[in-house]
Amino acid sequence: MNACCDGMPRSSPVWGHNVTPVGTPPNAIFMQQMRDFWPEEEGVSFLMFMAAAFPLSLLLLGLIWLGFCVGFVWWKDTPRVEVDRQLFIKRRASLPKFSYEEQVVLLVALVLVTLWFTASPINSFPGWTAHTAPRMDIGSIGIMCTE
Fold it and tell me: For residues 147 and 144, what is the distance between their CA atoms, to the nearest angstrom?
């Protein structure tokens, strides 16, 4: 049981990072291969990729949750996991205030995600890269915001 609990946080990229093209290297490789093999096609935008991957991610999250319930809650021989709510309340109260550096990181992350979502065409909106930097891709946008 301890080995399972120890391994579950490490498996979160399996379902969580598959949602975005930049979440795992195979996703970014897929995006580049799509452009290389079919240059005449418009390609897969960040938002289109998320629209296809998000339902799958929710399904995988549900399966992981179901696995936890079967293994640790509904199984008769498994000892109950006791949660000390007061410990969580005490730890939350002891957290420091939202620092300036944390606010800057949050702002940069929000700007980055907004730029990723709006870079490619969305219905009648051509995307901001169409007028400013047509060859800019999601990797370039990420480097621009984080360097």
Answer: 6
Rounded CA-CA distance 27/57 in Å is 14
| This model's pTM is above 0.85 | no
Q: What is the pLDDT of residues 71-89, one digit of tens each?
A: 777 776 767 667 889 999 9
3-state secondary structure of 134: coil
Element containing residue 57 per DSSP (H, E): helix 46-68
Q: What is the pLDDT of residues 86-126, one digit of tens each?
A: 999 999 999 999 899 999 999 998 998 888 888 887 778 78
Q: Within the chain, where are the H helices?
A: 2-7, 12-16, 25-37, 46-68, 85-93, 100-118, 129-132, 138-146
Mean pLDDT rounded to a whole number for the chain:
80
CB 118 within 8 Å of CB 127: yes
Query: What letter would DSSP give residue 82?
Result: P
| Measured distance CA(121)–CA(132) in Å, rounded | 13
